[in-house]
Amino acid sequence: MTCIMKLRQYILGALMGVAVFFTSCSNDDIVIAYESQVAVNSSSVINSFEAVNPGDLELLDKGYKLRTRLLFYDTNGQLAASDSVFLNNWTEQAKLQPRLAPGVYTVYAISDVVRHNGTKTTLEYWALNNRDKLGTVRLTDTGWLGHERKIMGIGHQTLTVTEAGGNASIDVKPAGALFVYLFKNIHRFSDVTELEIAVQKTGDYLTFDERGNYTTSFKSGGTSFTAYRLVTITPGDFQGHSVYGYEFELPAKNYALKYKVNYTSSGQNKYMLSNGFVIDLEPGAQWLYTADLAETSNNFAEELVLAERDEDVKACGAGLTDWSVPQLVSKRNSVYLKEYE
Length: 341
Prior knowledge:
26 strands
């Protein structure tokens, strides 16, 4: 009799455990994710600009990759998922298959160039911060001058996910303006140590919202042109008489820049500034800046033109046969800070 009672108690206890198990499972929120297809076209970024020489912009230097990052935000602006892919150049299309619960998402795609050793990123020009909430996410300039590698693009699209998944195609657009600079007669004076484009302010970060709008914030040096630089070269690094290159900057109003010539005199470091320009930088705009050191010792010939046609950029180099293209390429792996050290 005792054995039978014990057996009944054991069976009853086991059944109660099973009941608790199923009750517990039925109270949990089980999220089922469905695979979606997202394609990102980054070539639209580079196609917005014209290169002086073919391949300058779309082809990447050895050791660099095109990084495309995807951020998926739900209707509450919370980050639901993220992903990234590394490609060989700007013309490759990124294809990703995120798994998401049914719903409507705002998808942001960010394409930029990073130094990558095949395992991890060792240098980036744009860092993502505070990305968990759409209203707080920041895309921050890490402070390096990056030449054409600094170019960055952003795109966004709405993705609706059902039990059949979802599809989205995103065209990434330039998030800033591109400068093409040409410094002529860089060896005119032997006491010149550096040639620069100095600026009063420089891009700090940008934020974006669910409608695809983004705003930029800048670091300011006030009225001074000795805090930040857009371009810097050392004439002694180049054999040719003229040097060209590219730099990228975030959109800005009243962006002031001047040609800055650093030189030595009586053992002291000094500098001279040109009259300069004040312009508005729009996303996708391309500016041509030319400065000639050979005019006089205290006056410079400088020109700044908004390139409205592809031919404007190509004409920038018309008649110049001494551009230091090989030397410039060999120096592109050198990185400098935008802020004076």
